[in-house]
Amino acid sequence: MKKFIATVAALAAYMGGLPVTTAIANPYEGFAGTTLVVNFPAHPHYDAVMKVLPQFTEETGIEVEVDQLEYLKMREKQTLELTKAEGDYDLISYVVFSKADYVFADQLENLAKYFMNPKLADPSWNGSDIIDGYIQNIGIAGGEKGYLPGKTGSLFGLPFGAETSILGYRTDVFDKHGLKAPTTYEELVDIACKIPQLEPGMGGLASRAASGQHASHAFLLHLAPLGGKIFDEDWNPVLNSEAGIKAAETLKKIVDCGPEGAKSFGQAEALASFLQGKAAVYLDTTAIAGQVNDPTRSQVAGKVAWAAHPAGVRSASQTGGFGIAIPKNAQHKEAAFLLMQWLTSPRIDKEIALAGGNPIRYSTHLDADVNAKMPWMATFGEALKNADPDWRPIIPVWGKINADLGTQLSKVLTEGLDPKSALDGVAERAGATMRDAGYYSWSK
Fold this sequence. Notes:
Distance between the termini: 74 Å
Shape: globular
CATH superfamily of the largest domain: Periplasmic binding protein-like II
Radius of gyration: 24 Å
Helix content: 40-55%
Number of helices: 20
Number of domains: 2
CATH topology of the largest domain: D-Maltodextrin-Binding Protein, domain 2
Order of helices and strands: HEHHEHEHHHEEEHHEHHHEHEEHHHHHHH
CATH architecture of the largest domain: 3-Layer(aba) Sandwich
Strand content: 5-15%
């Protein structure tokens, strides 16, 4: 009956000489039968996505084939795929630091034309609801410093599997000894080194420390809230500033007061230590919350509460994780955009969160259903207000500098190398790298 009435109304308008406007009932209709090939990492967020993804085909008629790889292998394969004249992937996930490489090589689609197209852009998608730090860090390039928002910035990807840093702590241990969740760095270091005295055999804070990216990551985690940066506004290395030295010294204190074997911990080992009850505090990615509260994987399930990353001279938590983008050489770009938009929509962001993924929207973090299942999510949403999109530089030469930084910090942690000497050396070599890359070509 409704269809009949609509038809009669349209005919009446036509007979009266009035223009007829017919809304598109299904914007996916023209893409039904298309098969998209996407590249995702083996990661807890994307495992949750795989549970929800079949709905997309049910709702749109667009088939999706997923090539899910370990994330380092994913990067290797993408490096080859993105250079082809015609690629196999229609949508890719990328680690945040790949943003600079891919955009610089002109291998990703600028998303503006898709969001401008009324036949593709869903007016209810609501971009203002996406967490600011995530989209600035993961999706935008070409603005300030080349990798941040600004008047010249453009959107090349959307956060998807993004993370910030959060503090988890053992409520049973803290209650037993009358401790409160640390809100400042002084309190954090004090508690981290007090725990081993109060609970013999237990470490304070389970931190990354292994040579290379893990030691560097841990240092950067403290550098931003303690007021430090890697570069000043003229690209001069300043990681060896007073704040940088304090961040290195803070990391060393935390590792020295950590659980057994802490000096060799990567992310997996630090998390395992916390899950096994060998440390009372964890300060790192929000991605681990599901594992902490899973009794099949965690010995501390139900004994952990969450708090914002403690403040130093300012409040600043990390930003990182994964984003999704459309390759320049993709074969089905418009259909890929529809999938990207669907995956990051308010409705599906909530469903992915309920399946164990990392939401990218403020509304999802505050959603009643999500918090009924994961009561820590509102705390995460509040903490995300301090997410710093510039806690590390996302530039093509960062990989080289980061590796050097991580190697020298490991020597600070394991060999007693003086923090200032270590950071002075990294700063000197970083300056040479930046000069060779052309960053000082326009110096006054």
